[in-house]
Design brief:
It is a single chain. The chain is mainly beta and 176 residues long. 7% of the residues lie in helices and 41% in strands. It has one domain: Pnp Oxidase, Chain A. Strand 8 and strand 9 form a beta hairpin.
Length: 176
């Protein structure tokens, strides 16, 4: 027995209302898709005489979760949340990102990232959470006279020194 079943239609995911929060700040309107990437580094010893990996000898050495989204809204409150690592400031005339002192990524620059607003086809909510996430890419944008600009952002989960073997991310699906 394989393939589709009567349960297939309720187990599909649809995400037209999905949105991202970083440190509880809604990142606003997004362009295109939200991408979630979980990458795992696996290790199997190269045992003499074995023609491949041996069951029971493998290890997961590393698991990282990244979320990539494209922000359509250019709002300072959102920039402060994701770009705080390079400095932010505001005065009576302007709000600025950059001109900060570079160095160690501060504890305040790590934040919870949550993807909400999407469901299985039977309307059971699904959410993705990254703990202790930091800005992992070099955000870039293009300016055009024909299209709206957006900023691509990648946030990556980080482990805690007190829990160095506990994956700092999860995907939750409601049972009810």
């Amino acid at each position: 027995m394989g393939g589709m079943s009567s349960k297939t239609l309720t187990d599909l995911i649809i995400a037209p209302g999905a949105y991202v929060t970083v440190a509880t700040v809604d990142m606003g309107a997004l362009v295109e898709t939200i991408e979630v990437n979980v990458s795992m580094e696996r290790y199997f010893p190269d045992l003499y005489g074995a023609k491949g990996n041996i069951k029971g000898t493998g290890h997961i050495n590393r698991a990282i979760c990244q979320v990539t989204f494209r922000m359509a809204e250019w709002e300072y409150a959102k920039f402060v949340t994701i770009w705080n690592q390079i400095g932010t400031s505001t005065d009576a005339n302007s709000e600025k990102v950059g001109d900060g002192t570079l160095g160690k990524i501060a504890d305040a620059d790590y934040a919870a990232v949550v993807i909400l607003g999407f469901t299985l086809h039977d309307d059971k909510p699904v959410q993705v959470e990254l703990d202790n996430a930091f800005l992992a890419n070099d955000p870039s944008f293009s300016l055009s006279d024909r299209e709206d600009s957006f900023i691509e952002v990648t946030m990556e989960s980080a482990y805690l020194v007190t829990a160095p073997t506990t994956a700092p991310f999860n995907i939750q699906m409601d049972k009810g």
